[in-house]
């Protein structure tokens, strides 16, 4: 049986978290992050994963309600978590558009040393001028350039990490390219796992190619087994052109898990959770993100609007824009008409993340089936509660996976690369 990989995502400031639940805790107190990280390590997970936004989003000219609690800076937080964990990988989302290679490579290498080889960087990009207003360069970067800059950024960071020899000798570095022209000496020795692990999140053709060329892990989202298999086969097939093997890239979709003592109870729990996540207000906000129009006068329990989306709308700022709102609206209308769904019911069905719902035994079996069918190498779990949303999975599902031999019972290495089964990068001096 194939061994699966598991990671934990701190759910963050979004509509995943059920804020109304009395067990929902702080999104900024260190205790929340520590609880979730310790739970993930108790479950022998590969890594703990933090998302990050660089600006509070706006909706119809106002700060988006779910952003007002803020979010600490990821690398600072992970350095603190390194002191209260021993084996768990620590992954930070950091933007390659509004940072510089030398500074970020140094911060990541520092985390890798402080954690003894457990650091990871989730590389994201932005072509959003709204976000760029927080930075000196503003929105200068064309959308077509964001992956070329990211690819050169990662390559440059790796040159910096390789500028120290494995035996601890520093050497000068120099990089000249389209986006960066730097030279000097790097201040941090080669890290315990050679390089921090690189994660990429994205589903576009450019994103898949970037992952195949440069990433160690890809964080993706797919709603069905078939979609997962198609993505898996496509991305793995791209590796050969870069001299890489299928095992060099670990594919981990983000998923939710809802448990119950029986499958029927779990389904009831899942229905309740989805309706708490998609309140009437959140349903209209989600609809407005597609339609690009102020729909506040519509009844969430009524039918979808009969007007078309505005593809040029700037109603929503700071979010990734819907690529083809007309096509998405048509898909939502078809779903609504086929099942007789209201606005809220349509959003509940159309925006759900890939979910595994059932008794612990049912969920364990389905997770294993996805991995055996090559729809994933593992999963990044996104709990709906902070900070205790991972507890039941670790207590009730992980032991079943361990008994069946599909997940580790103990860590066999000390670095994140060892958890993933990836070799240390060959030094390129």
UniProtKB/TrEMBL annotation:
Residues 19-373 form the Luciferase-like domain. The keyword Zinc-finger does not apply. It comes from the Bacteria. Signal peptide: none annotated. Coiled coil: none annotated. Keywords: Flavoprotein, FMN, Monooxygenase, Oxidoreductase. The keyword Disulfide bond does not apply. Pfam families: Bac_luciferase (PF00296). GO terms for molecular function: monooxygenase activity. Its EC number is 1.14.-.-. It is an enzyme of class 1 (oxidoreductase). Belongs to the NtaA/SnaA/DszA monooxygenase family. This is NtaA/DmoA family FMN-dependent monooxygenase. It comes from Streptomyces salyersiae.
């Amino acid at each position: 049986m194939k061994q699966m990989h598991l990671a934990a995502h701190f759910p963050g400031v979004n509509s995943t978290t059920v804020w109304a639940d009395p067990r929902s805790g702080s999104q900024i107190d260190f205790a929340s992050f520590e609880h979730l990280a310790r739970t993930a390590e108790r479950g022998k997970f590969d890594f703990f994963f933090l998302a990050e936004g660089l600006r509070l989003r706006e909706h119809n000219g106002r700060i988006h309600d779910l952003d007002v609690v803020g979010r600490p800076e990821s690398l600072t937080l992970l350095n603190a978590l390194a002191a209260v964990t021993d084996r768990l990988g620590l992954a930070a989302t950091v933007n390659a558009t509004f940072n510089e290679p030398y500074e970020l490579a140094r911060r990541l290498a520092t985390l890798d040393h402080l954690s003894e080889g457990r650091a990871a960087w989730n590389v994201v990009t932005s072509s959003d001028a709204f976000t760029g207003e927080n930075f000196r360069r503003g929105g200068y970067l064309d959308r077509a350039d964001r992956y070329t800059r990211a690819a050169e950024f990662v390559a440059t960071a790796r040159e910096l990490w390789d500028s120290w020899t494995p035996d601890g000798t520093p050497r000068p570095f120099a990089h000249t390219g389209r986006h960066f022209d730097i030279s000097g000496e790097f201040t941090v020795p080669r890290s315990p796992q050679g390089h921090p692990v690189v994660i990429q999140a994205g589903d576009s053709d450019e994103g898949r190619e970037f992952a195949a060329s440069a990433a160690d892990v890809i964080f993706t989202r797919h709603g069905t087994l078939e979609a997962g298999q198609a993505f898996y086969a496509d991305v793995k097939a791209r590796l050969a052109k870069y001299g890489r093997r299928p095992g060099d890239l670990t594919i981990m979709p983000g998923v939710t898990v809802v448990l119950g003592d029986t499958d029927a109870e779990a389904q009831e729990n899942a229905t309740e959770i989805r309706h708490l996540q998609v309140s009437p207000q959140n349903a209209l906000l989600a609809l407005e993100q597609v339609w690009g129009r102020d729909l506040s006068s519509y009844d969430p329990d009524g039918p979808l609007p009969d007007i078309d989306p505005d593809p040029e709308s700037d109603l929503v700022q700071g979010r990734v824009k819907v690529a083809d709102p007309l096509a998405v609206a048509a898909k939502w209308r078809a779903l609504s008409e086929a099942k007789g769904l209201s606005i809220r019911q349509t959003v509940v069905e159309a925006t759900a993340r890939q979910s595994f719902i059932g008794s612990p035994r049912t969920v364990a079996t389905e997770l294993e089936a996805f991995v055996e069918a090559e729809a994933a190498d593992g999963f990044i779990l996104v709990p709906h509660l902070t900070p205790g949303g991972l507890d039941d999975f670790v207590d009730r599902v992980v032991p079943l996976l361990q008994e069946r031999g599909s997940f580790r019972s103990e860590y066999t290495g000390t670095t994140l690369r060892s958890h993933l089964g990836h070799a240390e990068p060959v030094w390129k001096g």
